[in-house]
TrEMBL record:
One of its GO terms (biological process) is proteolysis. SUPFAM superfamilies: ClpP/crotonase (SSF52096). It comes from Larkinella humicola. This is Peptidase S41. GO terms for molecular function: endopeptidase activity; serine-type peptidase activity. Residues 321-487 form the Tail specific protease domain.
Amino acid sequence: MKRESIPFKRPAYLQKMNSSVRSHFERATSLPVFLSSSSTLNLEDRKTIVRQALLLIEQNYAHLPLKRAMHAIDPVQRLKLLLQTLEFGEETSMPSETEFHHEMTDIFTSLRDLHTNYLLPDPFRKMTAFLPFMVEDYFEGKERRYLVSHVSPGFSHPTFGPGVEVVYWNGMPIEKAVLNNAARYAGSNREARLARGVQTLTTRALIIAPAPSEEWVIVGYRTLDGELKEIRFDWMVNPPLPDAAEGDSRQQDLADMMTTGLDLEQDLIQQMRKALFAPQVIKAQKQVAVKLASGATLSDLDSTLPHIFQARTVTTPSGTFGYLRIFTFSHQDVPGFINEFIRLITLLPGEGLMLDVRSNGGGIIMNGEFLLQLLTPHPIEPEPVQFINTPLNLLICRNAPREVALDPWIESLKQALQSGASFSAGFPISETRACNQIGQRYFGPVVLIVDSLCYSTTDIFAAGFQDHSIGPVLGTDGTTGAGGANVWTHAIFSQLLTEADSPYKPLPKGTSLRVAVRRTLRVGRRAGTPVEDFGVIPDERHFLTRNDLLNKNQDLINRAGAILSTLPVRKLKIRSGKVATNQVSFTVDVQGITRIDVYVAERPIESIDIKLNQTAFTLSTAEETRRPLEIRAYDGNELVGRYRAEI
């Protein structure tokens, strides 16, 4: 029986969107109109997809033994059964494409791994479903509650807006609706699934998540006056912003593509939310681009990368500190990313730094690991990564181009047959030398703020921060998202094995697959512990309040300030000036430091006890080549600062 269609009426708020994004939403359509345009995968297309998924999960997937043990699942058997059904089926009797997508999505979701995905074909891969408001959770005492924290600037309503409490969702108590929604998503732990369950109530990336079953939602809410009301919203569908990450980035350099750790779904959702609720950031991006192109300078804390960094000075009851939000590590220009981070932290107060990486889905692994050296005097050990031992992974490493640097793993993969080891030896993706080349640039205390939507490179960064004892980790959830891997797309495998007999075959109609191919291990006193499924457990917990959600995280920032106020403040400022031919003088201003040792070209030159928080020394610059200068700062016998430069 053909279902009667409801005529599509364009919501008024789309016409009132901010001018910086209004044209982007001109293509927005209703969910039923979008679904009516879906493509069709024929029987052979489906067989190809399942065969390639089986290959990646059985031969390349680094976490398969862990997932089988921890979640009592067998994705390989499920894929084999699905393939058998397709091989013995006929075109006329096969299930609908929607059923096929749901089965594939369910198999991949059972892995509880946001790195390992079935990426739907066109038109799903380019679309996001959305509602014009955002729901977030907070705590009142020990009770979790849900409120509307943002609405799209074009939306207005007499009683529904920021601050109203959501109590029902399609007639279901909101707590149960969140739990049901969370079960559809692949978070590595319960906290991560709950966070994704809240987030996807109103925004869904259709390249990974199933399209909503309902065409509209009925939201039961408590107004600011305490009255219970209901309101209906139709699901709308629109592409994310053009700079959102693609699931199959064929235009990137192969070596760069192979060093990614990204929660693709989180990245796409964040891009859509930026367009819906923070169009001023998009406007700022455009303004920055124009200013930089014309040679104009920015004000001190205005970032050249406003979609990545947000810096400001915050005043709390415990003192004044620096606050730096990192929204993503997904930026191909690694030196540009690092240099902008350095510029911002050196402009912020030296009394303490709040580094907020909540809801950061990751990106380029080197962006995360290279930052660590800027915050500590101690050497950084990047996380080692391992392949699962299979003949196919050995073949990939043997055949890989030299520039992608897979040689270190070959020997241990060759020994697997004799050793019986499940995994290869571990080697870092980030070069150890590069992780220590710049040295420390912020000398005050640092607190890292995380939540359960931190994932992938952000998990790696948070683990490195904790493992190197850089500072306390403050969490608004009980753990991070626990995504510990380097992720490759099917396209990468295809580019690594290009021979005619390659097992990797082209996928049909824009479909793609992603898989966690190298698992990450922690270092320091937690050395060898996988990041996957375990994540980073914060040193301290803050339960978000209503005030946090409605007033720029005020209580969270006050809590971070209270933590920073208990930590010693160190300052190390070096000024240089030429005093004679082939001689440079250095003036060193300090706080919380009693001695400095001076090294040139890794050789000790001078050790100076400091009085009255200042000292000076002079070095010869007679050599024609530039040499590395290193100043190690001590409080008593404890190394508390390390400055590096070239002279």
